[in-house]
Design brief:
By secondary structure, the chain is mainly α. It has two domains: about 10-70 and about 140-225, no CATH class; about 75-130, no CATH class. The chain has eight helices and no strands.
Length: about 230
């Protein structure tokens, strides 16, 4: 029996990817930059924790606003579609027929489907929202869930590069452990992220590692040059 494999990526997974990606990269670059300027891990930890808190709030707020914007857009379009099927039903029927014409249905069948659909305005509007505008009704609590998921993922990601500085006083030594832990985690994260999105897993993981390493190296080099 033939089974088709389809890639499915939920909105929650997308939010985890967004939060974890920035959470691993930004605090890592900050910690590396500070390590190039100071020898005390305490300063790195203090600055890193402040950045993680601020970053998680900012990222979470961004996710919340994006969720609210999607919901507001959907309900504005829903209201407009209801107004149009009331005000210009024949024009809306033409749009229905055009959609089914794209599927290769005969003209007679297009008219019959449009006329049948017009008998139920709720189903008619639902069809237009999905097939004309490509919009699906958003989850009522989507904005809040998105904010929490992104924010928590950012915190988890940010703790990884910062953790060696909590246990090692010398920031230069802690940096070596931070680089090792973070680059391994970036590779694992990039691998699974690529698998979920249907991209080549290994090359996707390498790209994520390179981006993180370049960000940290640039921050370290700039801090070293300024402090030197």
């Amino acid at each position: 029996m033939h089974k088709e494999k389809h890639i499915t990526s939920s909105e929650t997974i997308r939010d985890i990817v967004i939060g974890m990606s920035d959470g691993l990269t930004v605090p890592f670059a900050l910690a590396a930059g500070l390590s190039g300027a100071v020898n005390s891990s305490g300063i790195v930890v203090t600055a890193g924790l402040a950045e993680i808190v601020a970053g998680s709030i900012a990222m979470g707020l961004g996710g919340f606003l994006a969720g609210r914007t999607d919901a507001d857009h959907y309900y504005a379009e829903l209201k407009r579609e209801y107004e149009e099927v009331e005000r210009v039903p024949e024009e809306e029927k033409v749009e229905v027929r055009e959609i089914f014409a794209g599927f290769g249905l005969s003209d007679a069948l297009q008219h019959k489907i449009a006329d049948e659909m017009a008998k139920d305005k709720d189903k008619w509007v639902e069809f237009m929202m999905s097939y004309e505008l490509g919009l699906q009704e958003p989850d009522a609590g989507r904005a809040t869930k998105s904010a929490l998921t992104i924010g928590v993922s950012y915190i988890i990601g940010g703790i990884i590069p910062l953790s060696p500085y909590i246990f090692i006083d010398n920031s230069q030594i802690a940096l070596y452990y931070s680089c090792t832990f973070t680059l391994i985690c970036l590779f694992i994260f990039g691998y699974f992220k690529s698998k979920l999105t249907g991209q080549p897993a290994f090359s996707g993981a390498i790209k994520v590692v390179i981006i993180g390493a370049l960000a940290a190296a640039a921050a370290f080099g700039i801090a070293k040059a300024i402090s030197g």
